[in-house]
Write a structure and sequence with these properties.
Layout: E1 4-9, H1 13-22, E2 28-34, H2 39-48, E3 55-56, H3 60-66, E4 69-72, H4 79-91, E5 98-102, H5 109-122, E6 126-129, H6 136-144, H7 146-152, E7 157-163, H8 175-178, H9 182-198, E8 209-215, E9 222-230, E10 237-245, E11 254-261, E12 264-269, E13 275-279, H10 281-284, E14 302-306, H11 310-313, H12 316-328, H13 337-356, E15 360-361, H14 365-372, H15 384-387
Parallel strand pairs: 1-2, 1-4, 2-3, 4-5, 5-6, 7-10
Antiparallel strand pairs: 7-11, 8-9, 8-15, 9-10, 11-12, 13-14
């Protein structure tokens, strides 16, 4: 089988993380990159690590002509425009086999739906990149508990959290550009993961029907809430709690997930590593980059957690493999853009719930219509009206 050529739009933190993941995948080349900054550095990394040759392209159109699939890893506020440029490139003859978009698909429901429609216009398979649904630990617990679930019934409560001390780039902290705060940035992870682990084995990822969303007032750096889902076959209601924070000023990034069923449970904590190191005060000055040990690391001395392979632990390797295989077969990936649009809707319903101080029932026509054009106060730069 010939090498599959991926092209990156964007060369920031997530693009670099995905490139690290690609080192562990056979038959995939990082063939091109276009970005406002950092493209040369990323291309050099690809060439040095056997992922290239990687061409630095001057435009999205040029990139689309050089690769088999493009991945949008650029900032949230640019994604609709980038999708339009991809569609234009396809109409002008670019022979793409698929489009990838990193979470979140859109900053609002309207944006997410626009991206879905643009992908349909291009007539291409899609992959919505939500890495936590691809984590080996999450997949393993579903397989290990399969027989138990068949006997006792599916999970009834899932809790999912992603926490660290804050993002790298300044634009993340500007809600008018990012689309909100930590709920927009990381709540999409936790809501998706909760939905996935609650889904009975053998059912599609969107099998459970979202019924309602209730959220506490989200600040730019903390959010928590609950999504209720309904099993359309049995009528059973199950719930997914999400908690997300840019205030977790401890070791570094922590992913925590657990699920509770009748007589069984699972728990995953990414800070439980088989490897820990200790660095004393005198030796600490020799540590140049604490984040080489753990994403969003906040310390360079003391007893430190080391995750030897974060790209694999967090699901990045598996989501790339899944997308490439799907595109080679001419189909959508495990998670497609329509799924990503549903996650955006749930995130926005959480913002609406916090603003209005009530549970948002997604089965109500009025809520469905309101969400189509909704833009949170935080995303409008008016967060103080509900935070203070």
């Amino acid at each position: 089988m010939s090498t599959f050529r991926l092209g990156f739009i964007g060369a920031g933190f997530i693009a670099k993380f995905q490139a690290r993941a690609m080192r562990q995948i056979r038959g995939v080349q990082l063939a091109g990159v276009t970005a406002l900054k950092g493209a040369e550095e990323l291309a050099a990394f690809a060439d040095a690590n056997g992922l290239g040759p990687c061409k630095v392209c001057a435009s999205v159109a040029e990139l689309c002509r050089e690769v088999d699939a493009v991945a949008i890893f650029a900032p949230n506020m640019a994604r609709v425009q980038l999708m339009q440029e991809i569609v234009d490139a396809v109409k002008n003859g670019a022979e793409l086999k698929g489009i990838i978009c990193e979470k979140p698909l859109g900053r609002t429901v309207a944006e997410a739906n626009q991206i879905v429609e643009l992908a349909k216009e291009a007539g291409l398979p899609t992959a919505y990149f939500e890495n936590q649904c691809h984590m080996k630990g999450i997949r393993a617990q579903k397989e290990q508990l399969r027989r138990v679930e068949e006997t006792m019934g599916p999970l009834v409560l899932a809790r999912s959290a992603e926490e660290h001390s804050g993002p790298h780039e300044p634009w993340f902290w500007d809600p008018t550009r990012q689309g909100g705060g930590v709920l927009s940035d990381m709540g999409c992870h936790s809501i998706a993961c909760g939905w996935y682990v609650l889904t009975p084995n053998g059912k599609p990822v969107d099998f459970l029907e979202p019924i309602s969303v209730q959220a506490k007032t989200p600040a730019e750096d903390f959010a928590t809430g609950m999504v209720t889902f309904k099993n359309p076959e049995t009528g059973q209601l199950v719930q997914a709690q999400f908690t997300n924070s840019w205030m977790y000023d401890k070791q570094g990034l922590r992913l925590y997930m657990d699920g509770l069923g009748p007589g069984y449970a699972f728990e995953l904590n990414s800070l439980r590593s088989p490897l820990e190191i200790f660095i004393g005060d005198q030796a600490a000055e020799a540590v140049l980059d604490a984040e080489s040990a753990l994403e969003k690391s906040t310390a360079s001395r003391g007893l430190l957690v080391v995750e030897p392979n974060e790209a694999d632990l967090y699901g990045y390797v598996d989501e790339i493999e899944d997308a490439v295989k799907a595109f080679q077969e001419g189909r959508d990936a495990f998670l497609n853009f329509e799924y990503g649009a549903m996650i955006t809707l749930l995130v926005q319903a959480a913002y609406m719930s916090a603003e209005q101080g009530r549970t948002i029932y997604l089965t109500e026509k009025a809520s469905q219509e309101a969400l189509k054009s909704y833009k949170s106060l935080i995303a409008q730069g008016r967060g103080g009206e509900i935070l203070f």
